[in-house]
Amino acid sequence: MPELINREALELMLEGIVRNVTNAKMKHLEYEIELLKRAKSIKPVMSVEEAAGYACKSVHTIRQWAKNGIVPYFREGKNIYFNTDDINDYLTKIRFASQEEIDIEAESRIKKLSTNRKHNDKIRTKQH
User: What is the dotted CATH code of the domain comprising 7-93?
Assistant: First the structure.
């Protein structure tokens, strides 16, 4: 027969659960606060040097992006500036697919090729 848990043990267990949940929520809130602090510190317009640091690229690369029209920019005298949103837009466009996405795409293409092959075989059979 299962042993009954006394009230004191049950209260201790519940305190532990509440403490764990509270700690997890606190860590999540601290993480969200850190994200908000970072977002608040990001400038809407950046110099070439700031854009390079933000995008983790070299100054040369950022200048090439501007020269080749990859990322819109504007000039003030000899200085080049970028909108942070434009840098973000470009960085999110160069996203690489995950292995799972690659596998799904490969399966889809194989299925399509298989279907096309069966269709072509039927056409050839009818022609002969």
Answer: 1.10.1660
Beta strand 74-76 with 79-83 is antiparallel
14-43 residues labelled b (16+ CB within 10 A) or e (exposed): eeeeeeeeeeeeeeeeeeeeeeeeeeeeee
Angle at 83 (CA atoms; ends 80, 86), nearest 5 degrees: 115
Q: How far apart are CA 62 and CA 66, in angstroms?
A: 6
53 alpha-carbon distance from chain centroid: 19
Q: Which two tokens stand for residue 43?
A: 């400038």
Are the CB atoms for 57 and 90 separated by under 8 Å?
no
| pTM for the full predicted model | 0.45
Residue 81 clears pLDDT 70, i.e. is over it: yes
Average pLDDT value for the chain: 84
Separation of alpha carbons 70 and 85, rounded Å: 13
Q: Which of helix, strand or coil describes residue 76?
A: strand
Q: Where are the domains of the chain?
A: 7-93, 98-128
